[in-house]
Each structure stands twice: as C-alpha cells, then as structure tokens.
Predict the structure of Magnesium transporter MgtE intracellular domain-containing protein.
Amino acid sequence: MKKLVIILTLSLFAVNTIYAQQQDNKVIDTTAILKELREKEKNLNIREADLNAKEARLNAMEQDLLARESDIKKIRDEVSAQLKSLSEQQNKELDNLVKVYSTSKPKSVANIITTMDIDTAVSIFSRMTPNVAGKILNELGKSNPEYASKMAERLTYQPVFGDDKKRQQPKN
C-alpha cells in the first residue's frame, strides 16, 4: 500500500510539473494532495481490518453450521434406525396377529376387524393366505357389507411403479 502511495505521489508530482508548465508556472499544492492520499490510505486500512474481522466471523459461522449439519445427520440416522426398528417390531406384531386370526373362527375375526382401522386390517388381510382371508371376508360381508367392500377395494389396489395418478382412498 505504501508503494502505491509513493507511486501516486510521484505521478502527481510529474503531472503537477507538466501542469505548472502549461499554466504559466502555477504550482499545485502537492502537500494537500499527499495529505488526502494518506487519509484515503488510512480509510482503506480501516476498511481492510473491518473486512478481515467480518471474514473471520463468517469462517466461524461456517464452522458452526458444518458442526450443526453433522449433528443433524447423526440425529437423522438415529431416527431412521429407530423407525426401522419400530417398523420391524410392527411387522412382527402383525405377523403374530395374522397367525392368531388365521386360526380363529372367521365370524369372530370379522367382528374384531370391523372395529379396526382399515389400513391395519388391510395389512393383516394382505398377509393371510387367500383361503383364510376369503372366509373372514365372507363373514365380514354378512355382518358389515360396506366395510367388506372397502376392504376388498383396498386389497385389490396394487400401486404400479411410475403410476403418476394418485388414487383417492375411500373414507372409513
């Protein structure tokens, strides 16, 4: 920066000399120009220090954000693992219900199924053998034909990969 000020001063001196020769030997006050250049240098140094401080704060904030991103990734991985474990547990419980309901009387199971959430009932039915599910659905049709119809509709819908149409699920 000092080199720049010296170069500018010398340049101004040269310009001043040329200008003075052209203006009937009038002299430009180079000390005033030099004082102004020093003031500008001081202001530039202050700005540079300010920018350096801001850059340091930005770097600190970036490091903080990277640390938080890492923490969020760890939490996300933990939640995913817990969801997987929960899903596996739920699948085991549904498999146990399927075993129980498959060995129970179809009429009793039909009465129980009508009190369940339809999504849970569909999950259970979809895991049963067709023979057992058919017997229970038959009894369900006798006691609650509307529910049996919804159940059959849900059981027959198989989403196709790439199917862009969103199927509206019937309301309970």
Summary: Residues 162-168 have pLDDT under 50 and may be disordered. Residues 104-158 form one domain. The helical segments are 2-22, 30-103, 106-113, 118-127, 130-143, 145-156. The CA atoms of residues 65 and 71 lie 10 Å apart.
